[in-house]
Amino acid sequence: MQTYRLGKTGPEVSAIGLGCMGMSGMYGPADRAESIATIHAALDAGINLLDTGDFYGMGHNEMLIGEALKGRKLENAVISVKFGALRDPASAWGGIDARPAAVKNFLAYTLQRLGVDYIDIYRPARLDPNVPIEDTVGAIADMVQAGYVRHIGLSEVGADTIRRAATVAPIVDLQIEYSLISRGIEDRILPTTRELGISITAYGVLSRGLISGHWQKDQAASAGDFRTHSPRFQEGNVEQNLALVEKLREIAEAKSVSVAQIAIAWVAAKGKDIVPLIGARRRDRLSEALGSRAVDLSPDDFAAIERAVPKDAAAGGRYPEHMLQHMDSEK
């Protein structure tokens, strides 16, 4: 597995990371044993970057990863954790808390659930509108000095916030959605991270399965699945989006690869500073994603892909409108 350094001072991570969110109910029920087997298979294949959030399953995801890592060499895993999202007992969302005191509180519980002495990359899940980013990053920097965190990351923030954060402490990466149908970072955010030497860890590279080649028009999201609320999966939008997938399928079949492999390879080929996070929660999907590493895209392939799926061709936003209004990266 090829590796890249995150940012100027960050850890060496595999060219593909494993996003573990879907193993804790965000996309409906998941199989615990298969989830752990998938994490093991990823580590065995050379994937060392494991991404989670302390609010995924209200701590379930961290405990799952902690269980999967038992008996394994922890130095072979780079654990990235998002914090700050508030939830209630009914699983509803309650905003963001990134106050310095909250940073240290969330971190203490994360260390306990994962069963580790430090977190490799720690980041606020979103910008807290009530707390200057300098205060949040400063609190994480204190935890770096204390040895509880190794590196600082950001998530879903815009160019101005990135610049402000970088004046406080080194930022190794920005985690943000990036795919063939979610290309908003190309306008201001990606140029800013490249100017500052900050990497991108890209989630949603298959747009939550929409452009994986496996989603069907009449497929219904199960109860508790985020996609039941996603505009791109709604009737009237999903048909247009799946038509784009069929155009992509023609290119994939001509290269004897899958649609998912083309979509992942496109993101990976956009720069060595971009690491796709694959949200596989089954070993077969992980194996398919790993196959993207062998997909070589020529300039003609790039041109064909972008003709098939032009920028801004997707129908519907990547999140519901009320969520987009509160996302710093969308400003």
TrEMBL record:
The entry's keywords: Oxidoreductase
Example GO molecular function: pyridoxine 4-dehydrogenase (NADP+) activity
Alphabetized InterPro entries for the sequence: Aldo-Keto_reductase, NAD(P)_OxRdtase_dom_sf, NADP_OxRdtase_dom
Source superkingdom: Bacteria
EC number annotated for this UniProt entry: 1.1.1.65
GO cellular component terms listed in the entry, alphabetical order: cytoplasm
Keyword Oxidoreductase: yes
Domain NADP-dependent oxidoreductase: 15-308
Protein's name according to its UniProt entry: Aldo/keto reductase
